[in-house]
Design goal:
four-stranded antiparallel β-sheet; eight-stranded mixed β-sheet; 14 strands; 27% helix
Length: 320
Amino acid sequence: MRSFQTVPEIDLSPLSSDSEEGLQKVAREVKEIFTSIGFAYLVNHQISHRDMDAIFSASKFFHSLPLEEKMKIKQNKSFRGYVPIIPTKKEGYGHNNQNDAFVITYEVPEDHPDFINGIYLAGPNQWPTGMFEFKQMVCEYRDHMLNLAAKLVKVFSIALNLGSNGLDKFFYNPTYVLRLQHYPQQPPIIPEKLYGLAPHTDYGLFTILTQDGVDGLEVKRENGEWLNVPSKPNSLILNSGDTIKRWSNNIFKSNPHRVVNRSGRERFSIPFFFEPNMHTTIQVLDNFINENCPAKYNPIKYGDYLVDRLQGDFGPLSDL
């Protein structure tokens, strides 16, 4: 396994033609990188400067609103809406995570069985009143992320030796979360374990992150060192999550990462978390099991897994 000293780049231009050759080329890079460091810069991703500028403008506009206005759509039991600075529930981290966010996820209408039965965080998104242009910009960016994610699912499917359509059954009506994340300016000397975002791993298949030019993201390497992931113009960051780690019996990585805002400025980032359908079962894939390497994880419905993880990180969802 190759050891990366810095976060590598993946050129996505071979995907623009939708050719099998292009998918295979990118999949080879994905396999090498995501069985090692688990983080990569994406270049030539076809998300325009205009679209990236627009989503950051929308985020900065929202976060500039008075707190009382944002609190009108405070995050509800469906995990949608405005998330003020809240304490982390992770053991050993005594400070609040120094960030707040506006969150949308996959839309669930009120007549959906999951909403009626009160399961799997089902519900409609919350939007600030009268801000049509804001909603339009957020939804347009979400659609760009979904289009890119659909291509990357094929790439990861090939990297898992399943063929380009092998993961499709897990991603009909996928679970996704889009966060407009804001990190306030922190003091010049930051107390120990005062994080913008405490060390954690992501839950799903992968996360696509857009940064605003202010550094702060760090990934933990295999040797325990924290590696800076600086913002690079015209790039996105892709990291793999716990779902692919489970599917691959720990062959693919889901490395811990954190945010420490040492910049002396506000920081904005926009993560897009892409995850399986809530009702699909995730379990170790057959091609990663043999008599010398049994399955390290039991099968679990993704919705149950996600709720368990959220409650572990944020406490009882009934407290929202």
